[in-house]
Amino acid sequence: MTLEVILFILFGLICIISAVLMVTRPNPIISALFLVLNFCSLAGLYLILNAQFIAVAQVIVYAGAIMVFFLFVIMLLNPEKEKRFLEHKPKLKIFTIVVVALVLIQLIYMIFLAHPNDSMTNKVSESVNAGTIESIGREMFTNYVLPFEAAGYLLLAATIGALVLAKKKFE
Amino acid sequence: MLNNIQEFYNILPIVILGGGIILSVFIELYSQKSESVLPWFSILIFLSAGFYSLLTVANESIVLQNMLSTGGRTNIFYFIFNIGAALVCLLSVDYTKKYGMNYGEYYILIQSSVLGMMLMAGAKDFFMIFLGLEIMSICFYVLAGVNRKKEKAIEASLKYFLLGAFATGFLVYGIALIYGTAQSTSIDIITSKFTELSGNIIFLVGVLLFLIGFSFKIAAFPFHMWVPDVYQGSPTTITGLFSTIGKASAFAAIIASLTALFSGGFQSLFLPYLSVLAVFSMLFGSIVAIAQSDIKRMLAYSSISHAGYILIGLASGTPVGVAGVVFYLAVYTFMNLAAFGIISLIEGENDANLEIDTYSGLGSRNPVLAALLSLIMFSLAGIPPLAGFFAKYYVFIAAIKSGLTWLTILGIVSSLISVYFYLRIVVLMYFKERETEITYSKSFSGMLGVVISVLLVILLGIFPGSLLDLIIAYL
User: Under a CB-based contact definition with an 8 Å cutoff, are residues A12 and A24 in contact?
Assistant: First the structure.
């Protein structure tokens, strides 16, 4: 077994266990902390796939910014009633199980039956170069310059919208 | 990157809008009277972008690394969006003052939403469709709840946001599956590979999810749950924005992304989905609208049934059908903007005068407004020689030419049902007296907006060929 395979099994196991624990905990704060662990191990999996930039972004944006924000919201709202949310809504539970089963069937089909990697190259050197910040930046400012600018306008619109909705003074 | 100056001229409508948004932010920042400057500045931006795109309709090209198409159908859509948005701003000037929500940000958000719509209409890549849709939707969620004092507006905003996010989930999942099977997000590449991909079940599921995501945005039947509440709760002028150019932009994105449907023989692939949606939207919208007592809710159900008629044009899957759809969207934009404009003039404090019964006796009390509203109701019902008739006519003709006679018959049945609730308002206005007096707010700019919209509806009814020839020539 190479180091790569050992790391893959390690991160994969942490990923699955933390995901299961996250869903089954009744306390939302503990759930959120397990989600942070899940994101971090996912970042490890990205690193094994030579996607350094996505791995770093995953840790900084998801595990760092978004989940800390999430934790603050949970602590401020203190959702006592929502802790047993699914038990009050049995129909919602069935709906959730159906959706999860559909996604699972689709994933199994994709991985084992649809041969997704037939048309992919597995040259390691190319994938190492593609995952660096330098090459992502170059793509962003050449081939994907219009989506990049559009994303800028999206963030501007969202900022202005948040200001309008949360503005303190109101006459 | 742009390769030459001609490409810059071609994307100038988008540059005008983008620059206008930044300038508006600075006007809002530094000007004390920004809320009285910005509506007129926005109208100037919209009119210049709209007429520029109409004048440069012949400059067909694909720019920015296959991300955006310019000229042709794209520019015709740019024209519709910009003129519609200019009319919304004109109607909003006094309406926002009446409700104490005349902030400059209101107009900046309208400009941003139009930028998103334009990116969707011109998209040559699924990236751009998604980003354009998100820019538009985020502005819409905020605009629905811009009147924070009204509980119903906040409810509308939240409902729109949650269901909009749900729809976006479908859309992104669909795009991910399409990308996974086609190894590209470029619409041209996917279209060229379409024959081999159409046998792949994952690709088809991706296309289906993509269409479901957009079915939410066009408010077609099983995905319409949010429409009545959101249309009723939002400020009336903003409802006009959602229901007209918001819907038109979603159709523009469907047309831009399903070019395979219109160039190859893949009509039969999409036909079951599109025709089922069309039939249920038309009949459901028309039948439920009869039972409504609130005029905004009634127009919300009528917009569901109009989405059905437009879907007939898409289902026919021919260039003639697409031309009919574009024409229908233009006419529908001006009709509905006029209708919501008149409602916004009659609407009083705290949702007063929104019941259909308050319109009784309008014919003797305010003859001009009553005459304009009757014209619009006749046009919405599809009575010749108004533009609404020709819009339905072209869509139905395209369907018959593609052998969808049964769909056309159901469409005609549905529009016969709809005559009842449109003409009920006309009957109330002219043949019923009202005991209590209601006050109408006088607004010059609002009246101007309504009159321009009605004039456009009449002109498109008398000379439908002027726009339709342009659409067919540059399809």
Answer: no
B132 → chain A, closest CA residue: A150
CA distances in angstroms from A163 to B17, B106, B471, listed in the order given: 21, 11, 40
The average pLDDT across B270-290 equals 92
Provide the mean pLDDT of chain B.
90
Region B22-35: mean pLDDT is: 90
Cβ–Cβ below 8 Å for B139 and A157: yes
Chain B nearest C-alpha distance from A139 (Å): 11
Supply the pLDDT for residue B336: 94
Q: Does A170 touch chain B (CB under 8 A)?
A: yes
Residue A76 has pLDDT above 90, yes or no: no
Answer whether B153's CB lies under 8 Å from B182's CB.
Answer: no
| Residue A66: DSSP 8-state | I
Domain-wise residue ranges, chain A: 1-81, 89-123, 132-171
Answer yes or no: is pLDDT of A168 > 60: no
Give the residue among A101, A95, A81, A90 at the shortest CA–CA distance from A26. Answer: A81
Which chain B residues contact residue A164 at CB under 8 A?
A: 103, 105-106, 109, 142, 146
Please judge whether A150 and B141 are an interchain contact, meaning their C-beta atoms are less than 8 angstroms apart. Answer: no
Kindly report, residue by residue over B353-369, the tens digit of the pLDDT. Answer: 788 888 888 888 888 98
CA pair distance B393, B401, nearest whole angstrom: 12
The predicted complex's ipTM stands at 0.92
Helix (H, G, I), strand (E, B) or coil at B385: coil
What type of residue sits at position B320? V
Contact A147 B128 (CB under 8 A): yes
Q: Does A82 lie at the interface with B, CB-CB under 8 angstroms?
A: no
| Best of B24, B136, B148 to mutate (most A CBs within 10 Å, chain A) | B148
CATH 1.10.340.30 fits A1-81, yes or no: no
Residues B70-86 pLDDT 10s:
988 999 999 999 999 99
Residue contact B64–A157, C-beta within 8 A: no
